[in-house]
Design goal:
By secondary structure, the chain is α/β, with parallel strands linked by helices. The chain has helices spanning 9-15, 32-38, 96-110, 149-157, 171-180, 185-199, 204-212, 223-238; strands at 2-5, 23-26, 43-47, 58-67, 74-77, 87-92, 115-118, 130-133, 147-148, 161-168, 217-220. The strands form two sheets. A six-stranded mixed beta sheet has the order 2-1-3-10-4-11, sandwiched between helices. It has a five-stranded mixed beta sheet with strand order 7-6-8-5-9. Strand 1, helix 1 (9-15) and strand 2 form a beta-alpha-beta unit.
Length: 252
């Protein structure tokens, strides 16, 4: 069975629980849904807001990746002492989630309609604001000076921020996938975490940070995460990003 997923630390940790016979393929977050058009029986871990344009996808009611604290796959970095800003440079594996949610956050929390600009430079500038998505946040302890996007969304919604969901076009494939993954997934991952951290090519301080805050990452889709996902869709509706609410097709 093919399983498409983004290339980040949290997706890799999720991947570590999969049976050995799964064919896992890393893809940029924005391209994963397109793979399901060609591989109709495949499973994918996608950014949750990809549902806005793919309402027909079946969504696992058991698994996903959600955040409820400082740990995040994306962080915002602002110029020190800056009072107003009109531009934010975006780096890494950016998806629809980061683009839409950061714009809402800028408007609601900072009264800013800042422009998002794709950054292709090799190095960061201390004169620029940034939204960094993915592994770069955990190099040289960048995240220490950053604002956790997940934490901001968690505070805004009052529910876990459901960043990634497990989906498929095929009901039988998704059902088989759910049966192949251990129940109480978070406990299984917690047991595997020390080995996973040892294999990561990041500093010991970064590993300590990730391990210490592991309790704010959720891999099981409970009622709380379902509510968080629905609140995320409502947020898109309230801000005029979608014209109508829709029912998420959770696998039953």
């Amino acid at each position: 069975m093919k399983f498409f997923l983004p290339d980040n630390i949290f997706a890799a940790l999720f991947k570590s629980t999969l049976p050995a016979d799964f064919e896992t393929v890393y893809k940029p977050s924005t391209l994963i849904v397109k793979e399901l058009e060609k591989n109709t029986q495949a499973i994918a871990l996608i950014p949750s807001l990809e549902l806005l344009n793919n309402k027909d996808l079946l969504v696992s009611k058991k698994f996903g990746i959600s955040f409820g604290g400082i740990l995040s796959n994306s962080y915002l970095y602002f110029v020190e002492g800056q009072r107003d800003f009109d531009k934010v440079f975006v780096r890494g594996d950016v998806s629809k989630n980061e683009i839409l949610l950061s714009k809402i956050l800028f408007e609601e929390m900072y009264s800013s309609n800042a422009e998002l600009v794709l950054d292709t430079s090799d190095n960061l500038s201390k004169w620029n604001n940034y939204l960094i998505c993915g592994k770069e946040n955990f190099v040289d302890q960048k995240h220490i000076s950053g604002v956790s996007l997940a934490d901001e969304i968690f505070e805004m919604l009052g529910h876990p921020y459901v960043n990634y969901i497990v989906v498929s076009k095929d009901r039988e494939s998704l059902s088989n996938f759910e049966r192949s993954i251990p129940t109480k997934l978070r406990e299984v991952i917690a047991e595997y975490l020390p080995k996973f951290m040892n294999e990561l090519n990041i500093s010991d301080l970064e590993k300590e940070f990730l391990t210490a805050n592991f309790g704010t990452v959720y891999f099981d889709m409970t009622e709380n995460e379902e509510d968080g996902l629905n609140e995320l869709i409502k947020l898109m509706y309230y801000h005029g990003i979608i014209d109508d609410m829709f029912d998420i097709k959770l696998l039953k």
